[in-house]
Structures are given as C-alpha cells and as structure tokens.
Amino acid sequence: MKSPNNILYFDFYRNENSFVEVELSDGWMQLKDCQNASVRPLLIPLNDCSFNIKKEVLIIYIDKKKHSYIRIPKDNPSYEDVFSALKSESKPSSIIHSKIALLITGLILLLVATGFLFVVVFPSISMRFISVHQETEMGNELYASLVKEQKMDPAASEIIQEFANQLKLSKQYPIKVSVAISDEENAYALPGGHIVVNSALLQTLETPESLVALLGHEATHINHRHSLKNILSSMSTSFLISLLTTKGGGFAQFIIGNANALRALSYSRALEKEADHDGMVLMEKNEVNPKGMQQLMERLKESNNESSISRISFFSTHPLTEERIADAQQYISLHPFNNQPLKETLQENWRQLKLRVKTI
Ligand SMILES: [Zn+2]
Q: Which helix (H) or strand (E) holds 94?
C-alpha cells in the first residue's frame, strides 16, 4: 500500500524533517524517503510506537523516548490503516504490561498484608491473651536471664528502688528498678515492670527531677505495654510458630531464648513520643516538675555531642533530641507547675545514688 507524500517524518537525532511513505507489514512499519530514494528505508516495530491524535493529525512516536515522530494527516489514505494497525499492535503489549503491573501490585499488596498481619494484627491479638500476671512472670524470667550477662550494682539498685517506691509510676505493674554497671548511657524497660538503668547514665544526670523523668518515660513503656508489643512485633513469626508447636511455657521460653536480641530492639518514634508525654503526666501526678524531662533531654544531647562514638541507644533510638526538647518545652508551657521543692526523702535518695555511682 502506497501513500501520497504528505507524511512528515521528524528525525530527532539528525534534527531534520523529511517526507516519507509508510508501508505496513506484519507488526512493522516501513518509512521510505520520498525525496531521496538512496536513503535506506527505516523499519520500525509497531509495538515500539505510541501515538496520539491532534487536530486530525495522527502523530506517531517511533521510539520509546518519544523523540522522533511521523505525522499523518487525516486526509492521507494510509491514515486509517496505520491507525488501526497501531491500535491492534499496541493493545496486546499494553495488556501484557498491565498484567505484569497487576501481578506486581498483587504481590506487593500480599506482602504488605502479610507484614501488617504479622507486625500489627498478630501482636495486638496475642497481647490480649497475655494477662498482666503472665507478662510480669515473663518479664521476671527475661530479667533473670539478662542480668546473668550483665554486672549489676546491688547497692545502687537498692537506692534507686527506694527512690522509685516513693513515686506512683504504675497502677498495674510492680516497678522494679535496678542499676547495671555499664559505660553506655542507656536505660531500658522490660515487659511487666523491670527498668534497668546503666551507671553511666546516672553519672550523667544532674537533677533528681531528670531521674524522675527517665523513670516516668520507661514506666510509660511498661504501662502501655510498648515493650511487650515491640517484642511481639519483631518476633511474631517465630513466636507464632513456637506458640503453635509448644504448650504453656512456650512463649516465656521463646522470649528468654531471644533475650539479647530483645534488648537491642528500639521503639518507634510514635511510641517514644508517647513515653515522653505520658512520662511528664506521671511527673505531674507525683508533683515533680516536668522540666526534669527537658533537663534529661538536654543532658543527653550534651553528652552525646561530647562523645564521638554514637553508642547511646537510649538516645539514638529515640526521636531527634531537638524535637523531644521542643515537645517537652511545649508541655511545660501548657502545664504551669507551682514550684514546690522535691520531697526531701527523694532528694536524700538522689544524693546517695549520685555518691554511689561515682564509685562505680
Ligand atoms: Zn524510650
């Protein structure tokens, strides 16, 4: 089939226009230069082409980058043939593409759904089946297996426990605080009530209010079952398997078997924010100035800057300190505190604790 030569071909690479004839054959389009017969015809696979119609002109981009194109006006006799050839050629390829896209989308959705199931749904379902009592028992066992590998300071632990006993930190959980001898400025909470504070962090703190803030923060992780949730989310797959294959003590055994991995877990930013906020609520309930939270953050920020090694996991796994300081400041401005001094017994414990950790 021949066509009159009003079909314009624009060659992007040569930046030149020429008039061409178009011939179609079985999935291909051949362009022949009308003016210069010595130019070799150009063969273009139709499924490389894309097209659109503007003002009754069929514009066919002949490469995937849509650089070079031909323009076929509607009055050209080959218009309809080329148009229908393009439609039938591009259809199957776009169907294949859309099938692949559909398959990929399906796979991604499946992965997201599975992830959601394991990370969000299963933990929250299994959390409902774990009573506070079971959680506390499990936390105790977990604590026992963790402290075997850590040096603890019984004297400092006793003082900090006395300090914590004077605060209302939890309604459901017995809060047990202990001091580990470690030069890592860190603290962590275990499900069911244990809080472990490293000696280096206590050495860093400057006010008893900032210690209350730290305990309030960690107690919130316990009260809101953040620690439990975290463990369940990160371990849910293998935990479920262990739950299905063992009875009774399966869960506790499983958790204890993974004790060290659990300690390295970090909380999400949202959970940290919540722990900071509700930590300050606890401070207020205990008539302790929530400014202690800001002091805690500022202290951590300073000591982090001093240290070239970024090893402070309490610090580094938490939301950006600047943001936490700003949040604390906002809370303080919204909750004016009548500046009564801290209970004398708390102050006394604080002084004892500072003396003790100096020697560690
Ligand atoms: Zn935290």
A: helix 79-116
CATH code, 7-89: 2.30.29.30
Which pLDDT score is estimated for 306? 42
Give me the residues paired with residue 61 across strands. Answer: 50, 69
Q: How far is the CA of 83 from the centre of ligand 1 (A)?
A: 64
CB within 8 Å of 195: residues ≥ 6 apart? 164, 175, 176, 177, 178, 187, 188, 189, 215, 218, 219, 222
- Own/partner pairs, 311-317, CB within 8 angstroms, 24+ separation: 311/184, 312/184, 312/185, 312/186, 313/184, 313/186, 313/264, 313/266, 314/185, 314/186, 314/187, 314/188, 314/201, 315/185, 315/186, 317/266, 317/267, 317/272
Quote the CA–CA distance of 276 and 282 in Å, as a whole number: 10
Tell me the pTM. Answer: 0.63
Residue 4 has pLDDT above 70, yes or no: no
- CA–centroid distance, 131 to ligand 1, in Å, is 23
pLDDT at 259: 65
CA 221 – ligand 1 centroid, Å: 7
CA of 318 to the centre of ligand 1 (A): 6
CA of 35 to the centre of ligand 1 (A): 78
Distance 197 CA to ligand 1 centre (A): 12
Q: Of 266, 267, 253, which Cα lies nearest the Cα of 142?
A: 253
Closest among 39, 40, 48 to 68, alpha carbons compared:
48
Q: pLDDT digit string (tens) for 325-348?
A: 999 999 999 998 887 899 999 999
**Does residue 69 contact residue 10 with C-beta atoms inside 8 Å?**
yes
Domain(s) labelled CATH 2.30.29.30 in the chain stretch across: 7-89
